[in-house]
Amino acid sequence: ADNSARLLDVKYHLLLPRGETVGGSLGYFQWTTILRTVSAMTAYRWVYRDSVKPWLVADLLILNRQIPRCLASCYDEILRQLDMLASVSGKRGPAHRLAAAGHSRLASSNIDKIFADGLHEFLTRFIIDNNKLGEVIAEQYLF
Prior knowledge:
By secondary structure, the protein is mostly helical. It has helices spanning about 1-15, 25-35, 40-50, 55-60, 70-90, 95-105, 110-115, 120-140. The longest helix is centred in the C-terminal third of the chain and has 23 residues, at about 120-140.
């Protein structure tokens, strides 16, 4: 999840040259490169059947659970693994609560709201929260 979020954030926030509009020809090739980097080009074409568009790439890599590297899919798996640990230990802890909160935020999001509020801001918050979750998991399970 962290890698996908960072790739999207770097592309959207840092690689867009001054004066270039979102959706320009340079952007098209950069977004295509992001899809290829996460092995999602074929999936993108299969799901959207459209030319590469920034908001659809973001939707695919943030919210589309059919893609294993998608943020929402990663949080599905994190919750599954924490549930398995909780079934063994018989209790849930702060890691499960943080993961559930992150999962809920992703489940209640849509790409229009994410872009309206700012993709960079959304991804920055996600990365911070995701790192905190990693720290809490390490503390709770003594990794």
